[in-house]
Amino acid sequence: MTFFFQNVVNALQWGSFYALIALGYSMVYGILMLFNFAHGDIFMVGAYIGCGVATVIITLSSSGVIVLPHWLILVLTILISMFLTSFVGMLVERIGYRPLRDAPRASAAITGLMIGIILETGNLLLLGAQRIKFPSLVHSTTYNIGGVFVTNKKIMIVVVSIGLMLALDQFVRRTKYGMAMRAMAFDYVVVPLMGVPINTIASMTFAIGSALAAAAGILFGIAYPVLDPYMGIIVGWKAFVAAILGGRGSILGATLAGFLMGFIEIFVAMVFPSTLRDLIAYSIILLILVFRPHGFFGEPYSARLRL
Amino acid sequence: MPLLQVKDMSHDFGGLRAVNNYNLSIEPAQIRGLIGPNGAGKTTIFNLITGIYKPTEGSIIFNGHNIVGKFPHEIASMGIGRTFQNLRLWRHMTVLEHVKMAQYSKITYGIIGAFFGTAKRNREEAEIEERAFKLLDMLGIKELSDQKVVNLPYGAQRKVEIARALATEPKILLLDEPTAGMNPEELAQMMDFIRQIHSELGLAIFLIEHRLRVIMELCEIVQTLVFGEVIAEGPPDEIKNNPKVIEAYLGKEMVA
C-alpha cells in the first residue's frame, strides 16, 4: 500500500509537468487553431532561463550584495523566468505564426517544428553540447508519512503547479482578455468586430503559455537538475498528447489529462518493466482517444473562416 | 456630410472580380437596403467595410476618415457595428457575456482589478451590466441573460447578435439578412424592432435582405447588386418595377 502511495506522489509530480506544458499547447490550439510545436522547446528555453536567473540571484545573495532567504530566491527565480520566457513566446508568435495566419494550417505547423529546431541548435551553439547543472534552489528534506517518503521538492512542485493552474483559470474567467480568449475559441472572426485587438490577445496567449512552460522548466530542473538542449522534445510531445486528450482549448481538460498521463505512466512502470512503459501507456491513451475523439471536454466544431 | 461613403471600390478574389466599382453614400440616421441574388457580393461589401477584407481599389470614408487598411477592431471602435447572415455567436458563452464582450474597450480595469475586485472594477462592471441589461430589455431577452446561447431558439439568437452589435455603440449598423430563416411572426417582430432601434438610437442602418417586403417597408433607398455591380439604385417602388432588377431576380422571359 505504501508502495502505491509512493507512486501516487511521483505521478502527481510528473502530471504537474505535463499539465503545465499542456496548458500552453491547449490555449494556443483552442484560441488560434494552431499547433505550436515549438512549445516543448520553449519549456527547454524556460528551464535554461530559470537556470541563468537562479545562478545570478544566488550569486548576488551569497556574495552579500542583497541577502535573500531561500524561499524568496525560489519565488523570484520562478517569476522572473516566467516573465522573460513570455517574451520568447511572443517573439515566436510574432515572427513564426502571425505572418502565416492566412497560410494553410500545415505550413504553420511546420513553422513550429522549425522554430523548435532553431531553439535547440541555437542553444547548442550558444552554450555548447555539455549538459548544464541546474542550481540547487530547494534544500531537500524528506518526510516519512506513514511509510511513504515525500520530499519537500515534490510537494512544492505540485503545489506551485496547481496554484498556477488556478491562477490561469481565474484569469480566463475574470479578465476581459480571458473573456476575449474564450470568445476567440468559439468564433474568431467576430471578436475584432467587438473592438478587440486580436493580435494583442494572440500575443498574450503565447506569453501565458510560455510563462507556464518556463515554470514547468524550473520545477523540472529542481526535480532533475541536469539540462540539455533536447530535454523539451519528449516531454513536449507527451504534453501535446495531453492537450489534445483534454479537449480543444479546455483548461480543465489539459490539466486533468496531464495528471492522467502522469498516473498512467507511473503506474504502468509500477507493474511492467520500465522499458515497456511508454508502449503500454500510450496504447491506453490511444484507446481513450478512439472512444472520445474530441478529448475529455472538447466538442465537435465546424471549420471557421480564418483571419 | 454623409456618415459612410464608399468611392469606386473594387475587390478581387484571385482573378475573380467580386465587387466592381462600388459606390455608396449613407447619411446619418438613414436606412439603406442592398438586394441582389445569391453570390452577388453583398456580404463581401460588408466584409470590406468592416475591414475583414481590404479592398483592391477605392476608398471608404467613415465620419470623415478613410478607414481602408485599418484593423477591424479599429473600424469597429469608430462606430461600425455588424451582424452576420449565419449567426456567429460564441456557442457556450452566456447572453450577458456576449453583450459584455462588445464593451471590451470600455473595460479599463486590469488583471489586479479583476483578481481582487477593486472598487474601480466593481463600479465599471456595474455600469457595463447596466448598459447590457438595458439593451437586452429593449430586445426582450433580458430574462435569458444567464443562458448559454447554444440553448436558445433561433429568433432569440438573432436578437443576441443584434444586442451584441448595438453594445459596441455603433453610429451605423450593418445587418446581413436579419430576417433569414424567420417565420412570418418573427419577421414582423424583427421589422418592428429595426424601426424601433432606428428611431430610439438614431442609428444609420445598412441592410442586406432577400425579402422584398422587408426592403420595401423599411428602406428609403435601395441598391441592387448583380455580379458585384450595382445595376439599379433608388427608392423601393422604383426598384421594384425596374426591368433590370426584375430580370436579375426572375429571369428574362418573365420580363417579356
Can you characterise this structure?
The complex is a heterodimer of chains A (307) and B (256). Chain A is 71% helix and 4% strand. Chain A has 307 residues and is mainly alpha-helical. In chain A, α2 packs across α7 and α5 packs antiparallel against α7. In chain A, the strands form 2 sheets. In chain A, strands 1-4 form a two-stranded antiparallel sheet. Chain A is built from 10 helices and 4 strands. Chain A is globular, with a radius of gyration of 19 Å. Chain B has 256 residues and is of the alpha/beta class. In chain B, 41% of the residues lie in helices and 23% in strands. Chain B has a 6-stranded mixed beta sheet, sandwiched between helices. The mean pLDDT of chain B is 90. The interface between A and B is medium-sized, with 25 and 31 residues.
TL;DR of this structure?
Chain A is mainly α and 307 residues long.
Fold blueprint:
The complex is a heterodimer of chains A (307) and B (256).
Chain A: H1 2-32, H2 39-62, H3 70-97, H4 105-127, E1 132-133, E2 142-145, E3 148-151, H5 152-174, H6 176-186, H7 198-223, E4 226-227, H8 231-246, H9 251-271, H10 277-291
Chain B: E1 4-13, E2 16-26, E3 31-35, H1 42-49, E4 57-62, E5 65-66, H2 72-78, E6 80-82, H3 95-101, H4 111-116, H5 119-138, H6 154-167, E7 172-176, H7 184-201, E8 204-208, H8 212-218, E9 221-226, E10 229-234, H9 236-240, H10 243-250, H11 252-255
Parallel strand pairs in B: 3-8, 3-9, 6-7, 7-8
Antiparallel strand pairs in B: 1-2, 1-4, 4-5, 9-10
Number of β-strand runs of chain B: 10
Sequence of strands across the biggest β-sheet of chain B: 6-7-8-3-9-10
**Lateral arrangement of strands in the main beta sheet of chain A:** 1-4
Query: What is the beta-strand fraction of chain A?
Result: under 5%
In total, the number of strands of chain A is 4
State Rg of chain A.
19 Å
